[in-house]
Structures are given as structure tokens and as C-alpha cells.
Design brief:
Layout: E1 25-39, E2 47-48, E3 55-64, E4 69-75, H1 106-109, E5 128-137, E6 141-150, E7 153-158, E8 163-168, E9 172-182, E10 186-197, E11 200-212, E12 217-229, H2 232-237, H3 262-266, E13 273-285, E14 289-298, E15 314-327, E16 337-350, E17 356-369, E18 373-385, E19 402-417, E20 420-433, E21 438-452, E22 456-469, E23 472-487, E24 492-505, E25 517-532, E26 535-548, E27 553-567, E28 569-572
Antiparallel strand pairs: 1-2, 1-3, 1-27, 1-28, 3-4, 4-5, 5-6, 6-9, 7-8, 9-10, 10-11, 11-12, 12-13, 13-14, 14-15, 15-16, 16-17, 17-18, 18-19, 19-20, 20-21, 21-22, 22-23, 23-24, 24-25, 25-26, 26-27
Length: 573
């Protein structure tokens, strides 16, 4: 089970068998959606979201051309029934969180574009009007073509100390191709992407390959080059306050009191940006030992806007060495348990000015064995830069002071009963805060409980973070979620999602203007019914309530009610 309970429907009656020797199948699934999707500021009036049509019709095509080839296409899709994201931003993480894909077509297609770097990250395609993919796979060849016309433009703008997101209501086009040949001992592939909008383009070309040096040893590599041109509106969307691109930034534009950001500088609209990304990996994973070496070299002007590349302008080396031991932990276990211990070290420097960004050393121990248990505990020491003092200056060195972090980190998972799985992850120790450029004490706990049976899937998750400096709490984060999926005897599937987010800050010690307290709650309920194996009816409601301490008011800020009907029409050749 992933980070969210996905939409799962009970199996219908089996389809008619294909004629002997045929693998061809064509299905068309037209749909109609009524979507009342409204939002407002607290205390304001509700209005339909501009980008969301109240009445919409579309179609999804799935054409299995042969056993190896498949064509997918969607026209005017509506994803109202897709569950909201559970991934949240954290104050302590300056990089944007990864959001898993849950949408039809993109879930099926994205596996054909995987490389060392995630150059095709389909969540950058936000509101597609049309999307299409042609995928092809044989024992020796994998190929994919992907294209989308999007009514929005989303770009992850990378820096070497964090990332931010450009989101504009601009029509954009996205294209990707991948071709890879495999053999027993090696593979070689080529991948390319292109994104365009008014006065904007980003093109990426990649060569990647793997080689097996033996049973336990493998090398992998990827080289990417890019060509990018940004318009001024991209940089403007990244400003901390409007108009930061109109005038030169103030001298010594200090963090917390500066309209511009490093991401505005990275979205340079005066020049065409050209760069490269090189990644090389060697990995040994044998019966008794493991070790690896990884090298990264990413130039300042490299961009992969259809992908999930959150860091540029750096060079890094990462090394590890470990040993393995096996024993019988429980006489009822079918196989032996394993203990693994390893050392990890790494160093990262800025590509543009060769200043140190991060030096890391860690020691880890891991157990895998009885009851599907995985227990990993490690101690980390990192001398790390987390942000810049002068936000208008991209240099590191004295402008990006490094902090001595040292903390314990652990990951734990066990399944003592077949239906139940327990996770308990955490972190405890000295960690630097990028928003305030201070070193403090972090206490982080992330318990998660999952239950899965034929009819019911449940997941409850909690994230608690407390960050203290000088013996006083600087901020607290609490993220709770509950997801449930139930298949009733009458053929109806019920899905429930509840989210609650709480953030508290000590504004007297905070750099810049932030709210002292923010809370948000989301409640979603969806019901899915299949009266016939080709028909599907669904309806749902979503409510979002927010609280903001600056106005000391709580209220409903989003409400959505939708109904969707779709019918699958299947053709056989």
C-alpha cells in the first residue's frame, strides 16, 4: 500500500475471451461530470473555481494494439474522484514534497519513462485538456511517447539549497519520448522532453545506460543536457512580494525581509539557460557485503521542467561500505533473518563558486526478518548549508553558513498479523532550520498503522515535529490523516479521507511575516457504484476548513460536490 488508499473497485464479470491468436482490444470510456467546485477567503462569498468547469464531458481510450503495444488517450478528463494528496510541505524541508500519481493514463504511462533522474514527472501536468501515450515493451526493448495539452503550467524551480514551484494559468504543451534496449548484461537508452508555452520553452535530451559487471556488481549512468527560456511572469510568480522583478533587489537583501528569492534568480528571464546533469553510480550488493559510489555533477543552468529535479548547481560524491550477517531469528520463519551494518559518507560543493554545501557521515544498522520486520537505525553528522543570508546573492560561502547537525534517525516496520502493518519512523537531535538560519533541537515522530482485508482498507498516519531553540519552542507541526475504503455486499464502494494540519510559530523570533497559527481540515467522502460491469456511477463531497491567526477566524474555504457517470464500451478485433 502506498501513501494513500487508492480507488479500488470490485472486480466485474470477466470479459469475453479474445479470439485465438489475437491480443487486440479497444475500450472507450465516455463520461459526464457535474462538478460544483467553489472556494473563498474566510468570511467571503463562494464562487466556482475558474479553472473547473461545472458541466463537462470527456472520453478515455485504451487500445491494446498487440501484446507489446498500447495506445492511451484522454480528452477533457475530470479527476474529481481522485483522492486529495496527503504529502505536505514541512517548515524544515526547503524542497517541495513528492506527490504520487493517481490519475488514469499517467499511472499507466509513467513507468515507461523511468531513468536515474525523474525526467518525466507527470504531476507537472495539472489540468490536461488532451493527453495521449503510446507505449511499447518487448523482452529487449522499451519505448514510450507521451503528450499533453495543459490549461495550466507548473514548473519546479530548483536551487542547490531548496526548490519552489511556479504555477500559472497558462496553456502549455508537454511531450516526452523514451527508447531503451536491454540485454542480459547491459542497457542503453535515449530520452527527450519538451515543454512550451507563450515565450517559454524547456528541452531536455538524455542518454542513459546500465551494465552488469558480474552477479553482484552494476554500473549505471545518465547524461542530460537542457535548453530553457523563461518569461518574466515565471520569475514574478516566485517573488515573496509582488513586483520584485521590476527593480533591482536592495543591497544586502536579508532573509525574512527581502522581496526576491534565490528561485527568482534561477528563473533568469534575460538569457537562454543551457546546462547539463551527469550522474554515475557503481553498486555492489553481494551475499556478505555491500558498497557503492555515486557521483553527481549538475550545472547551474540545467532545467528539466517536465521532471522532478529539485537541486541544481552542485557537485557531490557519496560512498558507502557495509557487511551482512544471517541467522535464524524464529524457528517458524521460512528463511533466515539478516543484519546489515554500513557506513555512509558524502561531500557536496556548489558548482558555480566551488564553495562547500554539505559534508555527511553516518553509521547505520538494519534488521530484516520475522513478521516482515524492517528496523533501520542510524546516527548522522552533517555540516550543512540550509539557506542564504542575502537572498539576492546566489553565492554560498559566508552567505550560506553551514551548521553542525547531529541526530538519530530510525525507520521501523512490522506486520505481526497478516492484515496489520505498523510503521514508526522518527528523528531526534540537532537540526538546522532554513527559514530562520538557526540550529535547534528537533523531535520528529511519524507513526502509521495500516489494515487491509478483502472488504476494508484503513490507514491512519500522524506526523509530529517540535523544534526548539534556546530551550523554547520555535515551531510545531502536526499532520494527521485517516483513509478508509470499504466494499459493501451491495456492490457499493465507500471511500473516506480526513486530513488535519496544524502549524504553530513563535512569531516574536521568526524571520519575516508568518502566521502564528494555521490549521486546515479536509473531509472527503466518495461513493462508487457499478450497476453493470460496463457502467460506473460515483458521487462525492469535499469540504475544507481553515483557521488563520492574523484575523482570528475559522471558516469553510472550499466545498465541492460532484457526480460522475461513465460507461466502458469494448471492441475486439
Amino acid at each position: 500500500m502506498g501513501t494513500a488508499v487508492e480507488l479500488l473497485l470490485p472486480d466485474g464479470a470477466p470479459l469475453a475471451e479474445l479470439p485465438a491468436g489475437s491480443a487486440r482490444r479497444l475500450s472507450l470510456t465516455p463520461h459526464y461530470v457535474y462538478d460544483l467546485d467553489e472556494d473563498r477567503d474566510i468570511g467571503g462569498r463562494f464562487a466556482q473555481v475558474d479553472e473547473q468547469q461545472r458541466h463537462a464531458a470527456g472520453v478515455y481510450l485504451d487500445y491494446q494494439i498487440s501484446a507489446e503495444r498500447r495506445l492511451l488517450m484522454t480528452v477533457n478528463p475530470n479527476y474529481a474522484e481522485v483522492e486529495s494528496d496527503i504529502a505536505r510541505d514541512s517548515i524544515n524541508n526547503p524542497f517541495d514534497p513528492y506527490e504520487p500519481e493517481k490519475r488514469e493514463l499517467f499511472v499507466d504511462a509513467r513507468e515507461y519513462f523511468r531513468t536515474l533522474n525523474e525526467v518525466v514527472y507527470t504531476r507537472t501536468i495539472v489540468e490536461p485538456d488532451v493527453g495521449a501515450a503510446h507505449v511499447w515493451s518487448t523482452p529487449t526493448t522499451t519505448s514510450g511517447l507521451l503528450g499533453a495539452v495543459d490549461s495550466q503550467t507548473r514548473v519546479y524551480m530548483p536551487d542547490n539549497l531548496g526548490s519552489d514551484v511556479v504555477t500559472l494559468v497558462d496553456n502549455s504543451l508537454s511531450f516526452a519520448f523514451n527508447y531503451e534496449r536491454q540485454s542480459d548484461k547491459r542497457s542503453l537508452g535515449m530520452l527527450g522532453t519538451l515543454r512550451t508555452a507563450e515565450d517559454y520553452h524547456n528541452a531536455v535530451l538524455s542518454l542513459n545506460g546500465t551494465g552488469n559487471l558480474g552477479v553482484d556488481d552494476k554500473v549505471r549512468g545518465q547524461l542530460l543536457v537542457s535548453d530553457t527560456r523563461y518569461p518574466q511572469r515565471f520569475a514574478e510568480d516566485l517573488c515573496d512580494s509582488a513586483g520584485c522583478t521590476e527593480l533591482p533587489p536592495a543591497h544586502d537583501c536579508e532573509l525574512g525581509d527581502c522581496a526576491t528569492t534565490p528561485y527568482v534568480q534561477r528563473a533568469d528571464f534575460d538569457d537562454t539557460l543551457r546546462g547539463y546533469n551527469l550522474q554515475l553510480r557503481y553498486n555492489h550488493d553481494g551475499p556478505d557485503s555491500l558498497y557503492w559510489a555515486r557521483f553527481y555533477d549538475v550545472s547551474p543552468d540545467f532545467r528539466a521542467d517536465l521532471g522532478f529535479i529539485r537541486r541544481v548547481d552542485y557537485r557531490a560524491l557519496n560512498l558507502a561500505y557495509g557487511r551482512k550477517w544471517y541467522f535464524q531469528a524464529n524457528k517458524e520463519d521460512e528463511s533466515q533473518s539478516r543484519i546489515r551494518a554500513y557506513l555512509i559518507g558524502g561531500h557536496m560543493r556548489s558548482h558555480s563558486d566551488n564553495q562547500p554545501l554539505e559534508t555527511t557521515f553516518g553509521i547505520w544498522g538494519e534488521f530484516r526478518g520475522s513478521y516482515q520486520t524492517i528496523a533501520r537505525v542510524g546516527w548522522q553528522h552533517r555540516k550543512r548549508a540550509v539557506n542564504r543570508i542575502d537572498q539576492s546573492d546566489l553565492s554560498a560561502g559566508d552567505n550560506a553558513p553551514r551548521f553542525d547537525e547531529h541526530y538519530w534517525q530510525w525507520f521501523f516496520q512490522t506486520s505481526p498479523f497478516p492484515a496489520w502493518t505498523l510503521h514508526l519512523d522518527g528523528r531526534w537531535g540537532s537540526v538546522a532550520d532554513p527559514d530562520n538560519l538557526v540550529l535547534g533541537n528537533m523531535r520528529e515522530l511519524k507513526p502509521r498503522l495500516q489494515y487491509s482485508s478483502d472488504r476494508l482498507d484503513l490507514m491512519a498516519e500522524l506526523t509530529q515535529r517540535h523544534f526548539e531553540t534556546d530551550g523554547e519552542q520555535l515551531y510545531k507541526e502536526s499532520f494527521a490523516s485517516l483513509t478508509a475504503l470499504y466494499h459493501a455486499d451491495n456492490g457499493i464502494t465507500h471511500r473516506l479521507l480526513w486530513l488535519r494540519d496544524l502549524t504553530k510559530r513563535d512569531t516574536d523570533r521568526w524571520r519575516g511575516d508568518e502566521l502564528g497559527r494555521e490549521t486546515s481540515q479536509t473531509l472527503e467522502y466518495t461513493q462508487i457504484f457499478s450497476p453493470h460491469r460496463h457502467w460506473q456511477l460515483m458521487w462525492g463531497v469535499r469540504l475544507v476548513s481553515d483557521y488563520e491567526s492574523d484575523i482570528d477566524e475559522r471558516g469553510l474555504t472550499e466545498r465541492e460536490l460532484y457526480f460522475k457517470v461513465q460507461r466502458e464500451i469494448t471492441f475486439f478485433d
